[in-house]
Design brief:
By secondary structure, this protein is an alpha+beta fold. It has a single domain (about 5-115), classed as Alpha-Beta Plaits. It is built from 4 helices and 4 strands; from the N terminus they run βαββαβαα. It has helices at about 15-30, 70-80, 95-110, 110-115; strands at about 5-10, 35-50, 55-65, 85-95. A 4-stranded antiparallel β-sheet has the order 2-3-1-4, with helices on both faces. α1 (about 15-30) runs antiparallel to α2 (about 70-80). The chain is globular and about 35 Å long.
Length: about 120
Amino acid sequence: MAGYESIVILDPNTTEEDQKSLLEKMTQAVAGKGGSVLHRTLWGRRKLAYPVKKLDYGIYHVLYLDENPEALTAMETFMRYEDGVLKWQTVSVEDVEVEFAKFEKLKTEGSVAQNLSDR
């Protein structure tokens, strides 16, 4: 099933409760336009490639959505006006389930670069 993969970077000072609330509002914005968030996973606190709003770290969340452009637009509009969101990027994927499985495998087993750094 085609859809979208979206990586959302939140302010590292955001509490866990605020993160859940923000993601729930985001899910409601998507549902309000007839879409659905198929998978939602926490990637964790990671160092940013460059400072954003004078912050060096961010909390990464990965969302997989069904193929509904109106719902995607509603989610991106919500993120644009939310103070806790630092950055986001959304890409179209051919099969949401395959991409989610790849992400989970990468998350649990690590990347090739991490395996090489252990040597």
